[in-house]
Structure to design on (396 residues):
């Protein structure tokens, strides 16, 4: 599955996988590709799996590059999604208050203001690159505000985020890219550390960073290393995935004019449309788990240390779970896609991403009634882990 055809259009390969081999060994990656919805759900629930599955970022690297990337891989192991209980439970409990509904509701007006400011800046031009000027601009400002990054420093976040996302996407495969990501992590940590020290003296009500600095669980607090890692993961997770949701979703609407017309006529359909965008073209195309102990499943034997690549984009197109799975239908019901994960590892920032996307599409459709695709060749970034557009040119 890992070739350029999959990046350009994964659907034919996904169909073939679901039809012929929904559980497929891949010795190149040291594990298995899992595509069927019911198998992914069952295996994520299986206690013989564990969440420390960062080996996928080095699976295809030479020994020399594995040595160079080791500090980044070890750091990634400390991220909350890589943990199982009790460590995961503790970290999530400490971080969860920052994402409580009462804090997110306060953001709604701010998101509306930011979206309108962005559109005010481009509307006279009659065209824009949705990826660069809209989809990335919005979450960059919002996550910067939430974490407590001054507006003058928001521009620092995107290059750091891109480099760290290359780690998560297993795209660090040269000395130059790994070295750049190591430098970005050091710079991000130094910056966050200064912010933390400031918030210890001057906390800000409703701000994620201040909440994490003061977070406690029966007297247990986040260590400095845990705090730095938590904030970095929130910035990265809250930036790129939301940006790709907005960009991919805009493309889907413009490619399906009958669905776009339905949304224009009834904006109340936007939340359901976002769920269908998440199902139909998810930005994270796979998730992973690692085998803890040997066991057999559906006639296959999984060995300790093997990585299971849970192909989200395949599960979201599984005809056993989703009728007419290749139809983009914003009125689809029972749309329990796996894009935000599953169970205790369900994405903590999902509500924030949905809110940003909802407001983005509400304002975009209301203010740009003539929105249409400009002439272009649609290209994706060369990533197996993320469904990401290089650009999306539109006009009105």
């Amino acid at each position: 599955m890992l070739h350029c055809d999959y990046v350009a259009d994964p659907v034919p390969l996904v169909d073939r996988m679901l039809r012929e081999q929904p559980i497929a060994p891949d010795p190149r990656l040291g594990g298995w590709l899992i595509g069927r919805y019911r198998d992914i759900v069952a295996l994520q629930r299986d206690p013989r799996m564990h969440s420390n599955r960062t080996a996928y970022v080095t699976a295809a690297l030479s020994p020399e590059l594995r040595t160079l990337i080791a500090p980044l891989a070890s750091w990634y192991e400390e991220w909350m999604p890589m943990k199982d209980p009790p460590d995961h439970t503790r970290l999530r409990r400490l971080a969860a208050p920052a994402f409580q509904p009462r804090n997110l509701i306060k953001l709604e007006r701010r998101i509306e203001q930011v979206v309108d400011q962005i559109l005010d800046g481009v509307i006279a031009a009659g065209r824009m690159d949705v990826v660069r000027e809209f989809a990335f601009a919005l979450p960059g400002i919002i996550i910067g505000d939430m974490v407590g990054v001054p507006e003058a420093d928001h521009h620092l976040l995107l290059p750091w985020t891109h480099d760290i996302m290359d780690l998560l996407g297993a795209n660090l495969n040269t000395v130059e890219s790994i070295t750049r990501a190591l430098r970005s992590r050091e710079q991000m940590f130094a910056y966050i550390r200064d912010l933390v020290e400031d918030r210890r003296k001057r906390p800000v009500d409703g701000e994620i960073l201040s909440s994490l600095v003061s977070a406690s669980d029966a007297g247990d607090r986040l260590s400095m290393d845990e705090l730095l890692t938590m904030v970095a993961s929130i910035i990265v997770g809250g930036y790129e995935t939301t940006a790709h949701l907005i960009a991919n979703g805009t493309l889907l609407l413009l490619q399906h004019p009958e669905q776009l017309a339905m949304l224009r006529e009834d904006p109340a359909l936007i939340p359901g449309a976002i769920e269908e965008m998440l199902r139909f073209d998810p930005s994270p195309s796979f998730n992973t788990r690692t085998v803890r102990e040997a066991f057999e499943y559906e006639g296959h034997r999984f060995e300790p240390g093997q990585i299971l690549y849970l192909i989200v984009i395949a599960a979201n197109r599984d005809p056993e779970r989703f009728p007419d799975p290749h139809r983009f239908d914003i009125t689809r019901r029972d749309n329990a896609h796996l894009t935000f994960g599953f169970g205790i590892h369900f994405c903590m920032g999902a509500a924030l991403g949905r809110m940003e996307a909802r407001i983005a599409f509400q304002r975009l459709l209301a203010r740009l009634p003539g929105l249409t695709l400009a002439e272009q060749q649609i290209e994706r970034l060369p990533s197996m882990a993320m469904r990401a557009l290089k650009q999306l040119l539109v006009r009105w």
In short: The mean pLDDT is 92. The first strand starts at residue 23 and ends at 26. The chain has 17 helices and twelve strands.
